[in-house]
Amino acid sequence: MTYARIEGVKCPVARIILGTASLGGIAPTGRAERLRRQRFLDEVLSSGGNAFDTARVYGLGASERTLGDWLAGTGSRERIVVITKGAHPSLLTLRSRVRDRCVREDVERSLRALHTDYIDLWMLHRDDPEVPVAQIMEILHDLRQRGVVHACGVSNWSHARVEEANRFARAQGIPGLAVSSPQFSLVGWRRPPFPHTVSLSGPNGREGRAWYCASGLPVLAWSSLAAGYFSPGQPGRPSRRPAAYRTDANEKMRVRVDELARQKGVTSAQVALAYLLAQPFPVFPIVSTHRAARFQENALALDLHLTPAELGMLETGSPS
After folding, report:
1. pLDDT tens across 22-56, in order?
2. How far apart are alpha carbons 77 and 70 in whole angstroms?
3. β-strands 3-4, 13-14: how paired?
4. Nearest Cα to Cα of residue 165 among 124, 224, 203, 222
């Protein structure tokens, strides 16, 4: 594992972050399953994975509770980076919850579920362009001043709104957004898998990628492997491509990825992650798995260095 700094987060952050959206389900789990999940998290931490991404909405709070129960027993809180998100739109009405009261309620609920008195990195889960960035940044600044949140970011914001927010922060002399978390993978989607989401992938993400390159703001890339698009199939059963990413262009991309992986003796997922890690701005891919061995396998992408020619071949089919 290798690590990098995120402004406001006190310890170095693993460049490969474990996503825990499916770590806890709505249905009650038995003791054996709870122990299995705790062993899994122990193994991820032992392999160097110190950063865990969750959200208040995942499993209606079950993901945070599972992570929190494990966190309470580790005795290693100071070296673990807890990333969570809140103020997601209402699941019933889809109405915006980017409001002071909703933010504070979600932060307090997250603190209780995670059994901690601070969150290393807290992110707004969606944007509401009708809410002025000045109001949002003042709410986030208050959370930092209270010490319940060490750093703040946003998920699924346009780069224009991120720039506006950080411009306001600079003018006020307060900390800006430390990170942004759009979807980013080697393949672009043909349709967003979730409402009001933002992607840096593919030709449509070119302008956004240029902005992050110029600003240097770290990107926490969700769905970095395109919802399993680069996962290997089981013997006798080919991998099923997620519908949101199933396009002719992506299938051609997959062929190029598979060929490069064969040449280098690595997995296709490692090539796809190495592409993100090779970007000219800091990218922290978020990967989701239930197996520690798979997390460790994905982390080997950190040792895989792609040449400019290989990056060009992946993107366009031509090395130039």
Report:
1. 887 766 678 888 899 999 999 999 999 999 999 99
2. 10
3. antiparallel
4. 124
Q: Answer whether residue 218 is part of any domain.
A: no
Domain containing residue 108: CATH number: 3.20.20.100
Amino acid occupying residue 160: A
d(CA 241, CA 140): 38
45 token code pair: 């931490």
Q: Cβ contacts of residue 27 below 8 Å, gap of 6+?
A: none
CA-CA-CA-CA torsion sign (46, 281, 297, 288): positive
β-pairing, 219-221 vs 283-288, is: parallel
Instruction: Confirm whether 200 is domain-assigned.
Output: no
**CA-wise closest residue to 15 among 38, 47, 37, 41:** 47
Over residues 227-239, the pLDDT tens digits come to 988 876 544 444 5
CA nearest to 259, candidates 313, 201, 185: 313
How far apart CA 299 and CA 309 sit, in angstroms, is 23
State whether the Cα torsion 67-71-74-79 is positive or negative. Answer: positive
Please indicate, yes or no, whether the overall pTM of this predicted structure exceeds 0.90.
yes
8: domain range?
A: 3-181
| Other beta carbons within 10 Å of 78 | 7
d(CA 285, CA 273) in angstroms, rounded, equals 7
Closest CA to 127 of 168, 175, 180: 180
Residue 66: closest CA among 96, 36, 103: 36
Neighbouring residues of 30: CB distance < 8 A, sequence distance ≥ 6: none
Residue at 58 is within a domain: yes
